Structures are given as structure tokens and as C-alpha cells.
Amino acid sequence: MKRSFNPLVMLLFGLFLFLIFLIAIGVDLNKLWSLLLQSRKSYIMAAITVDVLYIVTYGFAWYFILRTVAPEVRVLDALLIVFAGWFSDMLVPAAFFTGEVVRLYLLKKLYDIVYSRSAATNVIHRLLSAIAFAIFVGFGAAALAETGGATGVLPQASIALG
Fold first, then answer.
1. What is the mean pLDDT of the chain?
2. Dihedral, CA atoms, 136, 142, 143, 144, nearest 10 degrees?
């Protein structure tokens, strides 16, 4: 292993880039701040918590797949690489492909892992995520159909999902 990330530096750098992005797209920072002060903080904290927990779970899943081809990868590095990938996905709207490239690059840089081996873990991880998503949507649709809840939603969801 070459070196590990400093999480605090990465967080501050990410926040700095986000602030630059907001300024670049013309967001009124004073209005944004006033809206944040007026909002329900519990909703914001719940959303942030759920989002971070999802990304951490996503990272652990990828870490366990990654261990099959690169047992030397540390869990903290894998999680930070996933966070960097998600951040790049948010910055570059390229159908969530940017994060995969960032993950491959960082694995190569930190652990000198061959691209084809790490790319295989990304493909497997994406496939398993798609299967899990389809199962959750199926359970949700079945629950709506069983309870009769949200009338009108199930037919629309059926059309949208094909």
C-alpha cells in the first residue's frame, strides 16, 4: 500500500469544491442559508443520516467483493474510495459512471491493482445492486397491491417499470 487518505482533509476539500460549485451555478448563498435556518433540522439530519448509511453500506458491500481479488485493501480505504466515487458522481453527471472510474483509479494509485481485476468487482457490485433494487421494488409493489394503498400509483409504477 502506498498511502491512505486523510478523511478530514478529504471532507474539507469536498466542502470547498461544493461551495465553489454553488457559487459557479449562481446560487444565492444568503437565501440558501436563510432557508436552511427556517427548515426542520430533524428532517435534514434524518436525510443526511440515511444517505451516509446507504453509502457506507454500499461501500462495505463493495469492500467484501473487492477482498476476493485484493485482500490487502483496508476497509477504511475502500470506504473512502467509495465516498470519493459518490462525490465525483455528484459533480459530473455522466450516468453515475464517473464514480466507477474514480474507484478504479484510486485502487490503482493506492494499491497498484490491475484495472481489469478491480473493474470486475465494480461490474459484480453493480449487478448485485441492480438485483437488490429490483427485489425491493417488487416487494414495494406487492405491498401496495396487497394493502390497496396509494391508489393510482401501482398502475403508474407498472407502466414505468415496463
1. 85
2. 110
Residues 9-51 have pLDDT tens digits of 888 888 898 899 899 999 999 998 999 889 888 988 999 999 8
Whose CA is closest to 78, among 100, 51, 107?
107
User: How many folded domains does the chain comprise?
Assistant: 1
Using alpha carbons, list the distances in angstroms from residue 124 to 42, 84, 135, 140, 144.
36, 19, 17, 24, 30
**Could you tell me the three cell numbers for 36?**
436552511
CB within 8 Å of 129: residues ≥ 6 apart? 58, 61
Q: Is residue 28 part of a domain?
A: yes
pTM of the model: 0.66
Q: How far apart are CA 102 and CA 99, in angstroms?
A: 5
**Residue 158 domain-assigned?**
no
